[in-house]
């Protein structure tokens, strides 16, 4: 599943654009909507609050480890 940074649970907004928690790469603000990423993880909301990028990373990692 591929998606862009604006909908990703691994995205960490910063002054320049959006930084990926997993790769550490910063995507400039003008490219956030166009960026397709193999590490995309749809934002998960529990009790009305989105999970943190760290929590999304742990979930995504366990999913990928389970596929091996």
In brief:
The protein is of the alpha+beta class and 68 residues long. Helices cover 21% and strands 21% of the residues. The model has no long low-confidence stretch (mean pLDDT 88).
Major sheet strand order: 1-2-3
Beta content: 15-25%
Contiguous helical run count: 1
| Average of the residue pLDDT scores | 88
Shape: globular
Structural class, by secondary structure, is alpha+beta
Radius of gyration: 12 Å
In total, the number of strands is 5
Query: How many domains, in number, for the residues?
Result: 1
What separation lies between the terminal Cα atoms? 17 Å
Tell me what you see in this structure.
The mean pLDDT is 88. The chain has 1 helix and 5 strands, in the order βββββα. It is globular and about 35 Å long. The protein has one domain (5-66). The longest helix is centred in the C-terminal third of the chain and has 14 residues, at 53-66. The protein has a 3-stranded antiparallel sheet, with no helix packed on it. A two-stranded antiparallel sheet has the order 4-5. β1 (11-13) and β2 (17-20) form a beta hairpin. It has one helix spanning 53-66; strands at residues 11-13, 17-20, 26-28, 45-46, 49-50. 21% of the residues lie in helices and 21% in strands. The protein has 68 residues and is α+β, with helices and mostly antiparallel strands.
